What we know:
- Helix content is about 10%, strand content about 60%.
- It is mostly beta strands and about 220 residues long.
- It has a single domain, classed as Porin (Beta Barrel).
- The strands form 2 sheets. Strands 1-4-5-8-9-12-13-16 form an 8-stranded antiparallel β-barrel. A 3-stranded antiparallel beta sheet has the order 11-14-15, with no helix packed on it.
- Nickel (II) ion binds near residues 185, 187, 201 and 203.
Amino acid sequence: MRKSALSTLIAASVAAAAVTASTQAFAAYGAGDFFTRIGVAKVEPKGDNGSLTPANLKADVADDSAFAFTLGYRFTDKLGVELLAAEPFDHDFTLGDGAATGSTDHLPPTLTLQYYPLGGTDAHVQPYVGVGVNYTRFSDEKATVTGVGEVDVEFDDSWGAAGQLGVDLLIDDHWALNGAVWYMDIDSDAKVGGDDAGKVEIDPVVVMGGISYRF
Ligand code: NI
């Protein structure tokens, strides 16, 4: 009788542990996860991008979209770190309402420390916020002044703060649908014809949609 009760108890405990374990396995969204998010990101510079001296030419930087991906790690259920990478974005710009037109490539890797309020729970909707730093490197700047021809334009690299909001909609143990936005403070010192010409403020919102995979 006693032995039978004990084995029943053990059997029940093992069954409960198995159920708990499988629930936790499904819910294990948190500590120890490596993850990647893959999608398309659109960089939307803010409306007023500043003016360049000496002629006080208004700068206007256009949107661009490109393939992007992130890599990340969760230290704890609620804290993680994520690096945004992408192929270079190619932005068209105009100066002085079309007096000059040009384009530049830029690469804006962004590292954020993240907080997942529902990390470690079995919620299938997992939002997160992040703060961090953006480094933007400009390359292949080209500009043409109407009626004059090519001018030499250079944008210096930029370091700035970044903020992030995102959400994973869990599909199974590995896959999720993902949406995320970043705000990046990107201000670049510009040179025209080799001379300092002031600051271009891009300060974009970056919107990315795609999928997450964690392992
Ligand atoms: Ni700024």
